[in-house]
Every structure is written in C-alpha cells, then in structure tokens.
C-alpha cells in the first residue's frame, strides 16, 4: 500500500483508494463491498519466560541448602517460602513486562462475488476457516447459480392460514 488511503486486494492485486462514506462501523475508509481480514495471535513474551525460569532456578539453588534427609513437609514448606520470596523480589520488574505479545496482520480483499475465480479462491479460504461460502451475485446468466427467493412461498402459507380461519368462521 503506497498511501494512507490505498487498499490492495490480497487475492487480485487490485488497488483502490478508500472512501470515507460512514465511519460508524470502525472500518475507517474501507470501500463498500471490500473485506478486511485480520488475524491476531497471542505469543509468549520471551523476556517474561526468562524471568520465570530465573525465579525457578533460584528456588532450586536455594533448595540445595536444605539437608538431603529433611522431611518432605519441611522441604515443601521451604520451597513455598522460597517461591514467595522470589515472587516478591521480582514483582516490580515483572510488573513492567507483559506475559504475551499480540501479533496482528490485516489484509484487504476486493469484492469477490462477481468474479468467479476470486469467489472460488475466497470461498476455499473461508471453508478452511470453517466459515460458510459466499453465494455468487445473480448476473442473469443461465450458467450462474441463482438464489431462490422464498417470498412467494411465504405468501402461499399466509393464504392457506387465512382460508382455514374463514372455514372456522362459517361453521
């Protein structure tokens, strides 16, 4: 993307400028019909993990000061006390270290419904992610699958209900 308002389709490479029609949905100036796909991943912070390992190592080193034949309950109490001390010792340092990083990647996809090859590629991705397929747009061609309009069926159901009510009134 060259400018702040340019969007590039991740599937087709088409580039377009953003259009700020409405900003109430949080999509900024994403053109109408375009998709914004964001993948976010939480990964452990290596610095935080190193601090945890350092604390555990210091506890283990301090545990070696106990006599080898010390009773189990004394060893457990000593380990717990050392763990508390290590948590207190590192508390202010750990406060400034996030345990995780969030990595975020965003791509944009131009409207795909009217382009058969893009729609197929996009639906393959959607299927892999467990999402339903997008239907193609009705172009009026016989080869293009068309969506069935259920409005006529609903009207018939309403008419049948009206007739049965009329029959009840006649009796």
Rounded average pLDDT? 82
Q: Sheet bearing the most strands, described?
A: 2 strands, antiparallel
Shape: elongated
Proportion of residues in extended strands:
15-25%
Q: Give the strand line-up of the largest sheet.
A: 1-2
Instruction: Specify the number of helices.
Output: 4
Low-confidence stretches: 144-164
Q: Radius of gyration over alpha carbons?
A: 32 Å
Helix content: 40-55%
Distance between the termini: 74 Å
> Into how many domains do the coordinates divide?
2
Count of distinct strands: 4
The ordered H/E elements are EEEHHEHH
- Look at the helices and sheets and give the structural class: alpha+beta
Describe, in plain words, how this protein is organized in 3D.
With 171 residues, this protein is an alpha+beta fold. The protein has 2 domains: 6-43 and 102-170, no CATH class; 46-97. The protein has helices spanning 46-63, 72-95, 116-128, 151-170; strands spanning 6-8, 15-17, 35-44, 100-109. The strands form 2 sheets. It has a two-stranded antiparallel ribbon with strand order 1-2. A two-stranded antiparallel sheet has the order 3-4. A hairpin with a 6-residue loop joins strand 1 and strand 2. Helix 1 (46-63) runs antiparallel to helix 2. The model is unreliable at 144-164 (pLDDT under 50).
């Amino acid at each position: 993307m060259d400018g702040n308002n340019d969007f590039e389709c991740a599937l087709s490479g088409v580039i377009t400028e953003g259009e700020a029609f409405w900003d109430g949905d949080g999509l900024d100036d994403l053109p109408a019909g375009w998709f914004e796909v964001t993948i976010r991943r939480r990964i452990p912070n290596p610095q935080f993990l190193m601090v945890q390992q350092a604390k555990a190592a210091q506890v283990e080193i301090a545990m070696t000061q106990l006599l080898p034949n010390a009773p189990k309950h004394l060893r457990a109490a000593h380990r717990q006390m050392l763990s508390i001390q290590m948590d207190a010792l590192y508390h202010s340092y750990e406060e400034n270290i996030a345990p995780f990083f969030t990595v975020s990647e965003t791509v944009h996809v131009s409207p795909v419904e009217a382009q058969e090859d893009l729609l197929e590629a996009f639906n393959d991705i959607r299927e892999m992610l467990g999402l339903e397929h997008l239907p193609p747009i009705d172009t009026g061609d016989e080869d293009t699958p068309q969506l069935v309009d259920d409005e006529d069926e609903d009207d018939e159901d309403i008419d049948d209900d009206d007739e049965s009510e009329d029959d009840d009134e006649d009796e």
